[in-house]
Amino acid sequence: MSAGGVGTPKSLPSSGPKSLQDMPHPLAGPSSEDIAGGELTPSPDLQLPRSIADKDLSLPNGGTPAGTSSPASSSSLLNRLQLDDDLDGETRDLFVTVEDPKKHVCTMETYITYRVTTKTSRIEFDLPEYSIRRRYQDFDWLRNKLEESQPTHLIPPLPEKFVVKGVVDRFSEEFVETRRKALDKFLKRIADHPVLSFNEHFNVFLTAKDLNAYKKQGMALLSKVGESVKYVTGGYKLRSRPLEFAAMGEYLDTFALKLGTIDRIAQRIIKEEVEYLVELREYGPVYSTWGGLEMELEEPLEGVSACIGNCCTALEDLTDDMTEDFLPVLREYILYSESMKNVLKKRDQVQGEYEAKLEAIALKKEERPKVPAEVEKCQDRVECFNADLKADMERWQNNKRQDFRQLLMGMADKNIQYYEKVKSVKLPE
């Protein structure tokens, strides 16, 4: 694929007060801007007792403190930093591929399975290589488990499960291959993540011969952070998001809107190209038939017919490329933005819980009440959400820039190839 002369595409402008590209690394300390205006502190009218006010109970926008770790995370801070810098794959120790789709016809149902191959040098795995078969619902189980156990992190999206019957044949070779690519990308994104890749459910998914045995165990207990998200106080209205996360939410809304527009236009273009292709295929043979009736015109008419046939082939290739390569990336990132917004909402819920606890303490008449341990734990959860969400946003932005640069350059190459193919056939003199 050609890579010359094309720069990195500019990110969408944000209406927020702070550019997402200017966000500090989540593991770094708070910047002067954060301290000046980005932190969320209790409102002026919320007067805390002195013993509580002396404690730092604000919502920091900086990184996670050294003593606070991400929930259910098996990776150390060193591992996280090493893998964040690992853009060329030199230090990767976990490789996952999805391949070899097979159709299974049973009495009750028909479904597709995929071979998932894992190669690793991690000590968490008993063997260096695994090869198992999984179906779509197994991937869906994995994603649900990751959302339960890692609520502070962005979980990569899966391709849509349901298709419109009569419009898309979910057992067609084209559909199965498109889904295989999406599932392969889903697992690769998890395997490259410094926290999700160490999740126990991911390990089980990659290694267990019988995944149903784990599914029958029922819903596992949520992590402490997950419980706080699930059972958070519902009646409390969030005072305000920190400016950085407000800008993040605005960016995601704008990004999803723009991608949705591009997706609709691209689908309309493909639909018109397919309709044009049908007409073109009927148009070409007319000249061949005509040439058979008039011998003196046979050669030029056959030339026209061959030219039209060449245009058909080139247009079909271009349409297939847009359908199989362009549209899936757009849809993946539309789903990605929705997933990120859901994590942002969970962060707001935990912040709301924390603010509610602070107000409850402030309403107490005691002059020097003791700060409950649950309030400090709630503050830790907010800090954890802030750090993990910013780290995942930074990783997502890097992936997005690479993916769209590759996608747009690829489509430019495909369009150049299309016109070169159309131009290659010359009419007879």
Automatic annotation (TrEMBL):
Keyword Protein transport assigned: yes
UniProt-recorded Gene Ontology molecular function terms: phosphatidylinositol binding
Pfam families cross-referenced by the UniProt entry: PX
Any one GO biological process: protein transport
Domain PX: 92-213
Membrane topology of this protein: Peripheral membrane protein
Keyword annotations: Protein transport, Transport
Gene Ontology, cellular component aspect: early endosome membrane
PROSITE patterns: PX (PS50195)
PANTHER family to which the protein is assigned, alphabetical: SORTING NEXIN-30, SORTING NEXIN-4
Family according to the record: Belongs to the sorting nexin family.
Quaternary structure note: Heterodimer; heterodimerizes with SNX4.
Name recorded for this polypeptide: Sorting nexin-30
Organism: Monodelphis domestica
